[in-house]
Amino acid sequence: MFFVLGALTTIIYGIFTVPLAILWHDVGYACARGWGGSMVWLAKHICGINYSMRGMENIPAAPTIIMAKHQSAWETVAILHYLPRGVWIIKRELVWLPIIGWVLAGLKSIAIDRKSGRNARDQILAQGKDRLRRGYSIVIFPEGTRVAPNERRKYGQGGAILATDAGANILPVAHNAGECWRRNAFLKYPGHITMSIGPVITTAGKDAASVTREVEAWIEAEMLTLPKVA
């Protein structure tokens, strides 16, 4: 039921979001946030995936770099719905996905070729600064891909490089969504997800390596404090 209703919801919202994002971007973005809220609602009422948000008071008014743990698709739609208007740093291949990819492109996401090395970093810097100037926050998953619960991958420095170069701060996010909505899994499991939004990490006078370590330290320490999902 979740798959069917989720697909229908995605198609309906996508039909409106893509043209609206091109013609009236703010309206298109509001439509996309509505889709995110609908997916979270469906997961809650069909699959029994409840949730709570901690640290909402930490969300700043100014555009920021949002760096989050990445375990599933749940946090993607939750961040879209609950956190400040943001754009995403995504793999270039994603923009070719029907509907979802088109919406990501319409919302001015930063699509990069991760195999291009320095060129990818230059794209993040140039486009990231542009989005920040235009009032958008930027969402990045520093581990680069979805990582199963209780596992870790090396944190990349791309988000910290952008933050230090642009003079932006970082908003760290921890959660345990992968316990209910697992990576690459069709089945969803009932439980209570906790998403924790940390205090802003300032970047003034710091280098990217130290900022990355600070972000990683907060997120991974916070992961240990999250309540059990079941």
Number of distinct beta strands? 7
User: Biggest sheet, in brief?
Assistant: 7 strands, mixed
Number of helices: 7
- Would you identify the CATH architecture? 3-Layer(aba) Sandwich
Helix content: 40-55%
Evaluate the radius of gyration: 17 Å
Oligomer: single chain
What is the C-level CATH assignment? Alpha Beta
- SSE sequence, one letter per element: HHEEHEHEHEHEEH
The best one-word shape is: globular
What does this structure look like?
- By secondary structure, the protein is an alpha/beta fold.
- The chain has helices at 2-23, 25-47, 74-82, 100-106, 118-133, 158-166, 208-223; strands spanning 49-54, 65-68, 86-91, 110-112, 137-140, 170-175, 191-197.
- The protein has one domain: Glycerol-3-phosphate (1)-acyltransferase (3-Layer(aba) Sandwich), CATH 3.40.1130.10.
- Strands 1-7-6-2-5-3-4 form a seven-stranded mixed sheet.
- The longest helix has 23 residues, at 25-47.
- The model has no long low-confidence stretch (mean pLDDT 90).
Descriptive terms for the model:
single chain, 230 residues, alpha/beta, Glycerol-3-phosphate (1)-acyltransferase, seven-stranded mixed beta sheet, 7 strands
Annotate the secondary structure layout.
Layout lengths: L1 H22 L1 H23 L1 E6 L10 E4 L5 H9 L3 E6 L8 H7 L3 E3 L5 H16 L3 E4 L17 H9 L3 E6 L15 E7 L10 H16 L7
Parallel strand pairs: 1-7, 2-5, 2-6, 3-4, 3-5
Antiparallel strand pairs: 6-7
Helix pairs in contact: 1-2, 1-4, 2-3, 5-6, 6-7
